[in-house]
Automatic annotation (TrEMBL):
Gene Ontology cellular-component terms listed: cytoplasm
Any GO BP annotation: methylation
Protein name, UniProt field: DNA methylase N-4/N-6 domain-containing protein
InterPro entries: DNA_methylase_N4/N6 (IPR002941), RM_Methyltransferase (IPR001091), SAM-dependent_MTases_sf (IPR029063)
GO molecular function terms attached to this record: DNA binding; N-methyltransferase activity
Span of domain DNA methylase N-4/N-6: 13-96
Keyword terms: Methyltransferase, Transferase
């Protein structure tokens, strides 16, 4: 946490810290043991942050290209409802199996 001195306090935004449009704290999924078979897998933490910014609890998250199911997993962890579909039935089946083991709990927002 940054220490704010009295002489720099006037530089703070009155509503608190502003969210930057550059996020360097969430990294892509690099290691094969964490990746699925889909070539475009995104980190769950990234989708959790986006879902938190754009929805409220019990809202519906739509993922029209479910692929590796990242958006549905993030939505379920955050207590959101979700709808997802994909042209590839294999991805849909993998998503159904994975979502059965996911609980509604997220690392974002916890201390």
């Amino acid at each position: 946490m940054l220490k704010i001195t009295a002489e720099k306090k006037h530089l703070l935004h009155p509503y608190g810290p502003l969210v930057s449009d550059v996020w360097t704290d969430i990294h892509r999924v690099k290691h094969n043991k964490y990746r699925g078979i889909h070539p475009c897998q995104l980190p769950v933490l990234l989708l959790e942050r986006l879902i938190l910014m754009a929805t409220d609890e019990n809202n519906i998250v739509l993922d029209p290209f479910i692929g590796t199911r990242t958006a549905a997993v993030a939505a379920k962890k955050l207590g959101r409802c979700y709808i997802g579909f994909d042209i590839d039935d294999n991805y849909v089946d993998m998503t159904k199996n994975k979502l059965n083991s996911i609980e509604s709990n997220s690392r974002i927002g916890s201390s």
